[in-house]
Design brief:
The chain is mainly alpha-helical. 63% of the residues lie in helices and 6% in strands. The strands form 2 sheets. It has a 5-stranded mixed beta sheet with strand order 3-4-5-6-7. A two-stranded antiparallel sheet has the order 1-2. The longest helix is centred in the middle third of the chain and has 33 residues. The protein starts with a helix and ends with a helix.
């Protein structure tokens, strides 16, 4: 712990090696790395094609950036590589500035991420409202889905506009030219992936769908576009580093795109790290993660790769497959490289409609449909942030969507503070509940029960402090009591933070008791995912009821004499 405090940018890999890395750890990491590599192989090619470039660019990114993100990052389980979030911005940059422009923009974004990590801004990401992130992600999912319609329908369109509405108009005008072979293959790929997820969830659905489509195309000479027919195949080696053309005018022109890439890489990687923490009970180092993302994007740019970030789905797959350390992510990158070197001649048979089907599934997974619907039942301000961010992401562009979402969220926050200022100003999460007026009550709390109290509104700017409740580093208590009698307001992000605290308690087998909920927090929680709680979460009337419940839980858990 002292070493971590003295070196805040210490990679998790160093911590793992310092703790001791055993053969059993390697076996688990190797199996997880192989599983994720099988998932990443078709995805990397599909994401690159959807971004307006060649499939080898995605593979190079998965190898170079994926290895560095795991080796240098601040998360024990992060899997890095190209992701769907970058498709709209990458496609636009390539169309406007050429691929060399994308390389320079990615290089600039890498430097920005390194600076952001060194300036310790990683912790500021916790202030990003959940409705903004949900609206943004759902909007990107719509863009990805529409970008795949051309290949999924087999339309012979020389150039499809990048903008959403013009793209739909062009596709609609050529809808009568739909190729039944392409449509059937895309539909079959989606059906196969969905079927495997339902009946064989551990099977690598993406890879099997692509292999089946490639085998059918090669065997029966199906008349569909393939990687070979459009791109001529993929190279069987990594490219040498190459410095792009740099000028002040070009950097100024690419600055907005570089900022967007840096933001996407930062926010998605930290979200992925948070998801990994929730699944594993760990704790990532946000600033270390940003530095690693910056180094990885810089390296990816120098070898002609795409922007990269932490991939939430691949990270979750790695954890479910038994990963124990960052070595799993490093092995995933090396295995993708091995597949690339060995299977490059066969990649020419991969049909583009099958890859379009893969990305349609990715878009569906990215859509955040459950969070989207839950947030639509949240207070009006959260709904406004969600819908404004979603619509501007789809109809305008990603940078403008972020700006609009943040501005609306700020106004919503100010309005809420104006409404509650006469009740309580600010938020004080005082840590252990040892206020003088509560000494009598505190004396009645068992030593192995931890009590916390929140005073003031639980909004998006304060959720990080709530989520740090379980990070005291001491011995895990028998139960947590969270006193919320002085909380007049909980927004969607606050409810999400409460759900995160509950999930972490449930993972550790510790009951969470919340006492004294006022009317507005109770209404908000009833509309959001936390309302559908399970065992281990208890909502009680007041602190006296919380103490009585904790005593009852201890009695129920005691073995019969």
């Amino acid at each position: 712990m002292n070493a971590t405090r003295q070196a805040p940018f210490l990679p998790k890999l160093w911590t793992v090696l310092h703790e001791g890395y055993r053969p059993a750890d390697f076996r688990h990491d190797a199996m997880a790395g192989l599983t994720v590599a099988i998932v990443a192989l078709p995805l990397a090619m599909a994401l690159a094609i959807a971004s307006g470039t060649t499939p080898d660019k995605g593979l190079v990114t998965a190898v170079v950036a994926g290895f560095l993100i795991s080796a240098l990052g601040g998360s024990r389980f992060q899997i890095g590589g190209p992701t769907g979030a970058f498709i709209p911005v990458v496609y636009t940059v390539i169309a406007t500035h050429g691929y060399d422009g994308l390389v320079l923009a990615t290089l600039m974004a890498g430097v920005m991420l390194i600076a952001a990590g060194l300036l310790k801004t990683g912790t500021l990401m916790r202030f990003m409202p959940q409705p903004l992130v949900t609206g943004f992600t759902s909007g990107i999912a719509v863009i990805i889905a529409t970008s795949q319609l051309k290949d999924a329908l087999g339309l012979d369109v020389a150039k499809v506009p990048a903008e959403f509405l013009p793209k739909l108009r062009v596709l609609a005008a050529h809808l009568g030219e739909t190729d039944p072979w392409a449509l059937g293959m895309a539909a079959a790929s989606v059906a196969l992936i969905a079927g495997l997820r339902r009946w064989a969830p551990r099977a690598p659905g993406f890879l099997l769908a692509v292999l089946a489509a490639a085998g059918a195309t090669a065997l029966w000479q199906l008349p569909v576009d393939t990687i070979g027919s459009r791109f001529g195949g993929i190279p069987s080696s990594l490219p040498m580093p190459h410095w792009p053309a740099v000028s002040v005018d070009r950097m100024v022109a690419l600055l907005p795109s570089a900022l967007t890439i840096a933001f996407l890489a930062g926010i998605e990687s930290l979200l992925s790290a948070v998801v990994a923490d929730g699944m594993s009970g760990g704790k990532h180092r946000p600033n270390t993660e940003l530095v690693a993302q910056g180094i990885a994007n810089t390296a990816s740019a120098l070898v002609g790769g795409l922007p990269a970030t932490g991939a939430i789905a691949r990270t979750a797959t790695s954890i479910r497959s038994g990963a124990r350390t960052p070595v799993a992510g490093m092995l995933h990158a090396l295995l993708v490289l091995a597949f690339m070197l060995v299977l490059a001649p066969l990649a020419r048979y991969v049909p583009l409609p099958a890859l379009a089907g893969v990305l349609l599934v990715v878009a569906w997974n990215m859509s955040e449909r459950e969070h989207f619907l839950h947030t639509l039942r949240a207070p009006k301000g959260d709904r406004a942030v969600l819908l404004a961010t979603f619509s501007t992401t789809v109809l305008v562009d990603l940078t403008f969507a972020i700006e609009v979402g943040i501005v609306i969220a700020a106004f919503v926050f100010m309005a809420r503070m104006a409404d509650v200022v006469d009740v309580q100003s600010g938020l004080q999460l005082a840590g252990p509940d040892d206020a003088p007026e509560d000494l009598t009550q505190r004396a009645r709390v068992p030593d192995d029960v931890q009590v916390y109290r929140i005073n003031g509104p639980l909004f998006f700017g304060a959720t990080g402090r709530l989520e740090s409740v379980l990070d005291d580093g001491g011995k895990a208590p028998r139960a947590y009591i969270l006193r919320m009698g002085q909380v007049p307001l909980v927004d969607a992000s606050g409810a999400h933070a409460l759900k995160t605290v509950y999930e972490r308690c449930r993972t550790r087998g510790i009951p969470l008791v919340i006492s004294g909920l006022q009317a507005q927090p109770r209404r908000t929680l009833s509309r959001l995912p936390l309302s559908d709680h399970g065992a281990g979460l208890h909502l009680v009337r007041d602190f006296e009821a919380a103490l009585a419940l904790v005593d009852q839980l201890a009695t129920d858990a005691a073995p019969a004499s």
